[in-house]
């Protein structure tokens, strides 16, 4: 985007900057013209050229007013006073220096440049071109009228025309760049939109992959390992809950931001993960789960649940421990068992249950997971996720002021 600004601001900002630059250059020309008059008056005291300064004062005042309040009638007044100033300078120069009036006089050329450098009144490239052209016409018409009235022949001066052409070329270039930017912006926005859609799609794919493992693959493994005969009540309830999750869209739903996390959410996760076959000792304050953003909170609980499923499936023990804690800017959970353990491989253990349902799931929500295990020594899984809500402030109970 031009100037690093949004399109609706870049256009007016760029053209306004050009107008301000033109006004500054015009002020420099007027100051230079005044310096020339003062130098002539001091160097040649026998002539009287100081009255030329009289018309410079209102012209400078109108320029300052125009820069502060870019109104059309102020701009028109500036051009009118500028034309009068050009005529006045020409008359005084001819009378006091006893020269033939010429359209290419240096001092008069400075005043003409100041008139042309009005550039514009407010933002807008086309408006700036129009006002610059009006300044050129006002300067040359005023000069032509006074020179003809003094009995001399008028010919166009190249300096003001070159200045006008330079300004118009610069404004046209700025206009062209703006048109090109307008053409490129839709393509840029489309690319950003496509990238956001792709990232959203990847996020859903990660969640879907983890969900398939948590439900379908786990249930198939459970059925394969189950004894012949009817399924145990806890196992049947777990499979029914997984089927309801797959058929429904609860895993895609977005709850309100202000919905508090209740202990029932954690208890439901425990019931689904343990299927009545694993006893879990829970310690810590479950209220700290409220400090996690809603989507991250759901993934955090699913990662804890998958760690417990792994204990139930592979550890060979009937007990595990879950510890919930929180720091200043994060919430953590630790799942510990004293089962058979395993040897994790670098970058993951190579198992879908750990890699996708725990490690990748925590990474997707900006958290992290670490697994410590050794054959015959049990397994510890540590999860950490950033907290989006600050920790509650504990009031001091000592009664101190």
UniProtKB/TrEMBL annotation:
Keyword check for Oxidoreductase: no
Membrane-spanning residues: 21-42, 48-66, 78-97, 109-129, 161-177
Coiled-coil residue spans: none
UniProt-listed GO biological process terms: phosphorelay signal transduction system
Keywords: Kinase, Membrane, Transferase, Transmembrane, Transmembrane helix, Two-component regulatory system
Superkingdom to which the source organism belongs: Bacteria
Molecular-function GO term, any one: kinase activity
Protein name: Signal transduction histidine kinase
Organism, as annotated: Microcella alkaliphila
